């Protein structure tokens, strides 16, 4: 229970008034104290009239879960006892670092009625989000006293990747095109295609896919239909090192990569391929053997939800040796990673070369907008000129490494994070239809 700022100002005014009366008329000093005594009496009355914790009932309805990048709500219900008037109540919530900081929120309660308020929480990282403390504060009838209540709800809300993502227009176009194709076979000729059925020849069909023996038997030209080979292995490999912890538009590089990876995982499982997970930094964090079927999708999401952020440098040599020992079959390896300095980039390139000799590697990284902005900044000072030169040099080294990786047979995807999912899905479908595996 604390006096409000208004009470403090009135108390100071009453004290000065009593002091001035005692100085001007010393014989009436006792009477001069009347304003101060009266105000103190009012404060005591206010203190007794202010509702306490026994006069209200509080219930917190927690959310079952939250998705990274999407807001969630926690409902706080307050039920004053009959005849109790709280007036305006201030609420503040303290969370751990997995949620964004919350501002004060205000609402008015009516006597004897339950009022509930939805508090919006914004997840900024995956992991166990916690509602650590809840404060309620209200004023006395004349606003002279403030009563504050603190609760320790100890509520944990798991923050996971979004398993039902909101596609942007480009991703929707790719997914809709895939869904419209449905279960129909993709007509591809050449080695490695799986035979599906025969059909009558149509205008424009390649003569190389005509089945001459059966055409002679049925006395009509028949062509072979092929479908893309299924049951191939796709491994999503996530670098969880310190570079992937950097924030971009409210999410870390790792979270942007996981969101794109979840979309690709959905398409892979629908295509009939087997999907595996791999996470690494200075050590191997997780390796999940490839599995098939859409029933595995929630399990994949749960596994990715527990990938922690690491502030250590990535060990590509360890990751490469582990993958080569675990994978006995040619697979599509999708690497979500980033690099800055030339030393780590050179080590990464050497190890990707070893992987590319046995597997098909897709290198996925987000565009470094900071370096691009520094390079293109107007030279307002010598310091800015120096920053532009350094940024340009780093970008040139980055592009040189990309070209080197492409010459090794690595597929490079360097795109803004908001377009990463669409580009990644397009690349996967292109690889499938060209039968590069």
Explain the overall architecture.
With 437 residues, this protein is α/β, with parallel strands linked by helices. It has 4 domains: 2-49; 53-160, Immunoglobulin-like; 169-182 and 230-434, 3-Layer(aba) Sandwich (Rossmann fold), CATH 3.40.50.410; 194-227, no CATH class. Helix content is 37%, strand content 28%. The protein has helices at 5-24, 29-32, 34-49, 169-181, 212-218, 253-270, 297-305, 316-326, 342-356, 369-376, 382-407, 420-434; strands at residues 2-3, 56-61, 66-67, 72-80, 87-95, 105-109, 115-121, 127-139, 145-151, 155-160, 194-200, 222-227, 233-239, 247-248, 251-252, 274-280, 284-291, 332-336, 360-366, 411-415. Strands 1, 3, 5, 6, 8, 9 and 10 form a 7-stranded mixed beta sheet that branches. A 6-stranded mixed beta sheet has the order 17-16-13-18-19-20, sandwiched between helices. Helix 6 packs antiparallel against helix 7, helix 9 packs parallel to helix 11 (382-407) and helix 10 (369-376) crosses helix 11. The protein is elongated and about 130 Å long. The N and C termini lie far apart (71 Å). Residues 182-192 have low confidence and may be disordered.
Describe the global form: elongated
Give the rounded overall mean pLDDT: 78
Overall number of domains: 4
- Helical content, roughly? 25-40%
Q: Give the name of the CATH architecture of the largest domain.
A: 3-Layer(aba) Sandwich
Radius of gyration: 33 Å
């Amino acid at each position: 229970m604390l006096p409000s700022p208004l009470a403090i100002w009135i108390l100071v005014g009453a004290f000065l008034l009593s002091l001035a009366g005692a100085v001007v008329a010393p014989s009436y000093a006792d009477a001069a104290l009347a304003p101060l005594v009266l105000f103190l009496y009012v404060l005591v009355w206010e203190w007794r009239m202010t509702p306490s914790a026994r006069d209200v009932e509080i219930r917190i309805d927690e959310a079952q879960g939250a998705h990274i990048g999407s807001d969630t709500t926690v409902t706080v219900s307050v039920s004053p006892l009959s005849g109790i008037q709280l007036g305006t109540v201030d609420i503040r919530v303290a969370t751990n670092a997995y949620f964004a900081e919350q501002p004060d929120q205000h609402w008015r309660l009516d006597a004897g009625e339950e009022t509930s308020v939805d508090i919006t929480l914004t997840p900024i990282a995956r992991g166990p989000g916690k509602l650590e403390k809840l404060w309620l504060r209200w004023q006395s009838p004349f606003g002279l006293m403030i009563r504050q209540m603190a609760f320790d709800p100890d509520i944990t809300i798991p923050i996971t990747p979004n398993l039902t993502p909101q596609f942007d227009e480009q991703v929707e176009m790719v997914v809709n095109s895939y869904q419209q194709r449905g279960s129909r076979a993709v007509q591809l000729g050449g080695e490695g295609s799986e035979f599906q059925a025969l059909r009558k020849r149509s205008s424009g069909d390649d003569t190389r896919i005509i089945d001459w023996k059966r055409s002679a038997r049925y006395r009509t030209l028949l062509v072979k239909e092929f479908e893309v080979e299924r049951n191939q292995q796709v491994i999503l490999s996530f670098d969880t090192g310190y570079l992937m912890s950097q924030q971009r538009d409210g999410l870390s590089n790792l979270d942007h990569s996981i969101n794109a990876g979840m979309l690709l995982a959905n398409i892979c499982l629908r295509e009939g391929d087997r999907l595996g997970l791999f996470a690494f930094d200075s050590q191997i964090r997780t390796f999940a053997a490839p599995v098939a079927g859409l029933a595995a999708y929630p399990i994949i999401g749960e596994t990715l939800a527990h990938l922690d952020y690491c502030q250590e440098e990535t060990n590509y040599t360890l990751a490469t040796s582990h993958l080569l020992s675990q994978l006995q079959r040619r697979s599509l390896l999708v690497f979500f990673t980033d690099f800055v300095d030339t030393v780590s980039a050179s080590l990464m390139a050497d190890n990707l070369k070893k992987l590319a000799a046995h597997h098909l590697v897709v290198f996925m990284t987000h565009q470094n907008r900071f370096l691009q902005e520094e390079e293109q900044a107007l030279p307002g000072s010598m310091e800015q000129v120096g920053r532009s030169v350094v940024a340009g040099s780093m970008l040139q080294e980055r592009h040189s490494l990309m070209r080197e990786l492409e010459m090794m047979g690595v597929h490079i995807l360097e795109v803004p994070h908001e377009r990463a999912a669409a580009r990644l899905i397009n690349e996967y479908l292109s690889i499938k239809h060209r039968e590069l595996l």
